[in-house]
Amino acid sequence: MGEAMAGDAREIQCNRALKLGALGMFLVTLSALSHRIAQHGSSALVGPYDLLLLGLSTYRTGRLVAYERIAEPLRAPVTETKPDPSGVGETVVARGRGARQVLGELASCPICIGTWAAAGMVYGLHIAPRPTRVFLSIMATTGAAELLLEASEALSWLGRAARRHCAR
Q1: CA distance 91 to 88
Q2: Which residues contact 104 (CB under 8 A, 6 or more apart)?
Q3: What is the pTM of this model?
């Protein structure tokens, strides 16, 4: 039993080290690109419209990568899709151990992968603004549509629940 616990502790430490390494890579890239932007004399700040586009695009991109079937081939090496415990749908979970598991956790979390996507989009605005704005416009439009769909679906569910409650 002690050997299994020691193995679990090593795996936990390994996963922590891998996550810290990924965070370090994120921060090094952030620093390098921030330095490059500063050297070119451009402002690293984005305007309110860009911030809106980035927010909606990040929301949509995170959900696309983490959940959508179209992105399943990208996730497949590090995640698997299983029936949700509620029985209502499916859930994407990390698979494997070590780096594979850490990447799976990143790829199956829309907020986690969205952070990396947002960084890429912000960098893109400074490095290649025109194609990035086209991408942001597309993703922001679909992000807004997704939010509207979710809101209308939630209102529909509330309406049905209210009708069932009144019928009692």
Answers
A1: 10
A2: 75, 78, 79, 93, 94, 95, 96
A3: 0.77
- CA nearest to 132, candidates 57, 25, 77, 67: 57
Residue 44 in tokens: 């690293």
Half-sphere exposure of 110 (CA within 13 A, CB side): 17
Between helix 110-127 and helix 129-167 the angle, nearest 10°, is 150
The Cα 46–Cα 53 span in angstroms is 10
- Each residue's pLDDT expressed in tens, for the chain with a length of 168 residues: 566 666 678 878 887 888 898 889 888 988 888 787 777 766 667 889 999 999 999 999 999 999 999 999 999 999 999 888 888 888 899 998 888 998 999 999 999 999 999 999 998 988 888 999 999 999 999 999 999 999 999 999 999 999 988 987
